[in-house]
Design brief:
The protein has about 260 residues and is α+β, with helices and mostly antiparallel strands. About 35% of the residues lie in helices and about 20% in strands. The strands form two sheets. The chain has a six-stranded antiparallel β-sheet, with helices on one face. Strands 6-3-4-10 form a four-stranded antiparallel β-sheet. Helix 3 crosses helix 4. Pfam families: AraC_binding (PF02311), HTH_18 (PF12833).
């Protein structure tokens, strides 16, 4: 009944397919699924996803919906991660619902969490199963109703190679005060050109990019559940807990303590 781990999901004839793996490891290669959308659920740990040139953080107890034909890959993740992926043929009746055509990152409510965990018993099963089909069709149809706490937090990855060194610098020095002149020198661009190209490529100012990067990194640390919120605030570069809380709330629309409670 169980298939080998190396397989092409699009070659699976059944309408639904469950893939569960403890300590998930996946090739860091861009790919897409022509026939199937997918739900990626992180039970513990965290996972980065790149979808259509945007990088998303998938924290613990969150799920991502990735539509069919979306170019994507998994990136770095925590050392220990419990990940469940469910693949779904896109039904004709669902094609009019915008949910199924865009990336959604959302907190998983208890009822969906239990449904996903129940589906684990069909992991890697490539044979048709009536009960599996009925159950997963119901889960699939209800997905749009579970996105009340959707997170549209992502970073667009710039294609302009002139920004490569500046992005690398920001990604490794995000905890430090932003020195515009230093970034300008690194990119070999005037400050005005750097700001204009960066905004065009990412949709963000340099300051906003750094803020979102700090918040994403703090979500990663919050998911690990190893530090206090105050400790995390200082680790990602804020001078006070209040400054971090204000920044977090402006980006996420709720406080870091609210996120910590949801884990």
């Amino acid at each position: 009944m169980n298939s080998p781990k190396v397989l092409n999901v699009d070659d699976i004839a059944k309408p639904y397919f469950v893939w569960f793996e403890d300590n998930w490891r996946h090739d860091d290669v861009l790919h897409l699924h022509q026939q199937k959308g997918q739900l990626v659920y992180v039970e513990s740990g965290f996972q980065y996803l790149t979808v259509e040139g945007k990088m998303y953080l998938l924290p613990q107890n969150h799920a991502a919906w990735i539509p069919s034909n979306a170019l994507h890959k998994t990136n770095s993740h925590s050392e220990r991660i419990r990940l469940m992926i469910l693949f779904f043929d896109v039904h004709q009746e669902a094609k009019e619902n915008s949910f199924y055509h865009q990336v959604n990152i959302f907190s998983v409510p208890p009822v969906l969490k239990e449904m996903i965990k129940y589906a684990e018993k069909w992991s890697m099963n490539t044979e048709e199963n009536t009960n599996e089909n009925i159950f997963l069709k119901a889960l699939y149809n209800e997905l749009p109703n579970f996105v009340a706490d959707s997170i549209q937090l992502h970073i667009s990855l710039p294609k302009d190679k002139r920004l490569t060194q500046a992005i690398n610098y920001l990604n490794t020095h995000y905890t430090q005060d932003l020195k515009m002149e230093e970034l300008s020198d690194i990119a070999s661009l005037s400050l005005r050109s750097l700001e204009r190209i960066f905004k065009k490529e990412t949709g963000l100012t340099l300051m906003k990019y750094q803020q979102i990067l700090r918040i994403i990194k703090s979500l990663e640390l919050l998911s690990a559940n190893e530090w206090t919120i105050s400790e995390i605030a200082y680790q990602v570069g804020y001078k006070s807990l209040q400054a971090y809380t204000n920044s977090f709330q402006s980006v996420m629309q709720y406080r870091p303590s609210d996120f910590a409670k949801s884990l």
